[in-house]
Write a structure and sequence with these properties.
Blueprint: H1 2-5, H2 9-15, E1 103-104, E2 107-108, E3 165-166, E4 169-170, E5 300-304, H3 315-329, E6 336-338, H4 349-352, E7 360-361, E8 367-369, H5 372-375, E9 400-402, H6 417-420, E10 428-433, E11 445-448, E12 456-459
Parallel strand pairs: 5-7
Antiparallel strand pairs: 1-2, 3-4, 5-12, 6-12, 7-8, 9-10, 10-11
């Protein structure tokens, strides 16, 4: 046989004897080398291991696939079988033979060897972590910590959406995720007037954007313009002077202080009495009425007529005319009315008199009352016992006065001489007395319309 032709003469004598491979030899573990003849037996022992007794004698005996006398990892295994992948012996061309996950088809599995094997998902044989296959032979995925070019903008290897990388895309304002410590909010829209602005800052008064609950937002800290620091529209009464529009603004709706409710500085003639400064303010330019042009209360004069008249006065207006004529004749000037009441309430002084705020005085300067309220409270400060200056007094000592008027200025009743048009002795009227300062000055008694009496004249 050809295998025998390779034997040397020195070994020929061994072939005739019953030599066999000694499993206890130095080569039994799969190593290679020259056969150690020290342990070669002279007789073929009976084997119970399944190994042919003559295996290792360099002679191909029946039952042997090969017999090269080697006890190592050659083409022939120590049990005289052809060395094949998976027999547990490291044979020619094999890098391993242990049938594990790291050894497949007797080749050692190594990531980046370009061969996908074992538990590898991929193996592109390069050292790049930025392509579809990482150096760990795993398919590139978002979150593996490696930037996959062309697919990922970033990969920080963590599941957090609060940092600068979200689903392997760089965080930006408007992505709907709040970037911690960078963004105050992120509502994922481009609406600038909601709770989160387009620059991902929480809406706040002063950011220059009109947000929820704000009427305006000019982005400055001035309260002197049209938008206050509270992001409310400026208005008269807000307590801040709107430059170019308001002269003042004291934050209230009062008209009796230095700044009117319309944010105009108070002044004499504005129609509002400035407390502690003005005695009156009638808002007109007439100096001779109740309030002077200096906003001082004009005092009003009063006298009892020097002339005497029956009840036929020509009505209430006729009595007024008589007062005016007497005042003009005395050089008093002004507008005058008679203190009498006719047939209806509208004819009474309480309804038709201008009520003085500067007081009532006799022509000689004696004060009769502080004002209208003082005049009609039932008690005068002085009797109205002086006639118009320079008059020729008729009926000297006669103190009766036509009135039909109560102390409060209202009508006494229906005793009014037919509306002050009759001097009939059949009619009577209520009367007062210039001799008294209490209610009797206007409510003293009654007398007939035929009796002549005086009238009270009041400046308006």
């Amino acid at each position: 046989m050809p295998i025998r032709a390779r034997f040397t003469p020195a070994l020929a004598t061994l072939a005739t004897s019953a030599c066999f491979f000694n499993p206890g030899s130095p080569y039994a573990n799969g190593t290679t080398g020259d056969i150690d003849t020290t342990n070669v037996a002279t007789t073929a022992p009976t084997s119970t291991s399944g190994v042919a007794p003559n295996c290792g004698d360099l002679v191909l005996d029946p039952g042997e696939e090969c017999d090269d006398g080697q006890a190592g990892n050659g083409a022939c295994t120590p049990d005289c079988k052809d060395n094949v992948c998976g027999d547990g012996w490291l044979g020619p061309g094999e890098l391993c033979d242990d049938d594990t996950a790291t050894c497949i088809d007797c080749q050692r599995v190594v990531c980046s060897d370009g061969v996908v094997a074992g538990d590898e998902q991929c193996d592109d044989g390069n050292g790049s972590n930025s392509d579809a296959c990482t150096n760990a032979c795993k398919n590139a995925t978002c979150g593996d910590g490696f930037l996959h070019e062309g697919t990922e903008q970033c990969d920080d290897g963590n599941p957090s959406d609060a940092d600068g990388c979200i689903d392997c895309h760089e965080a930006v304002c408007g992505d709907g995720v709040v970037w911690q410590d960078v963004e105050g909010c992120d509502d994922g829209n481009q609406v600038n007037d909601d709770a989160c602005s387009n620059n991902c800052a929480l809406a706040s008064c002063g950011d220059g954007i009109v947000g929820p609950g704000e009427a305006c937002d000019d982005g400055n800290d001035s309260d002197a313009d049209a938008c206050l620091n509270t992001c409310k529209d400026a208005f008269c009464g807000d307590g801040f002077v709107l430059v170019g529009v308001e002269a003042c603004d004291d934050g209230n709706q009062l008209d009796n202080d230095a700044c009117l409710a319309n944010c105009v500085i108070a002044s004499c003639g504005d129609g509002h009495v400035h407390d502690g400064v003005e005695a009156c303010d009638d808002g007109n330019a007439t100096d001779g009425d109740l309030c002077s042009n200096a906003c001082a209360a004009n005092p009003k004069r009063v006298f009892v007529s020097s002339k005497m008249y029956t009840g036929a006065l020509g009505g209430v207006t006729g009595a007024d005319t008589k007062c005016k004529s007497m005042a003009q004749a005395a050089g008093l000037g002004g507008n005058w009315k008679a203190w009498i009441s006719g047939a209806d309430d509208s004819s009474a002084p309480a309804a038709r008199f201008t009520r003085s705020i500067g007081g009532y005085f006799l022509p000689n300067g004696t004060q009769v009352a502080n004002n209208w309220d003082d005049l009609v409270d039932g008690l005068l400060q002085a009797k109205i016992g002086q006639h118009e200056p320079g008059a020729n007094v008729q009926g000297v000592g006669h103190t009766v006065v036509h009135t039909n008027t109560k102390a409060d200025g209202t009508r006494t009743g229906d005793a009014h001489c037919a509306g002050w048009t009759s001097d009939s002795a059949d009619l009577s009227t209520a009367r007062g007395s210039m001799a008294h300062a209490n209610v009797r000055w206007t409510e003293d008694d009654v007398h007939y319309c035929s009796i002549a009496a005086r009238i009270y004249c009041f400046e308006q």
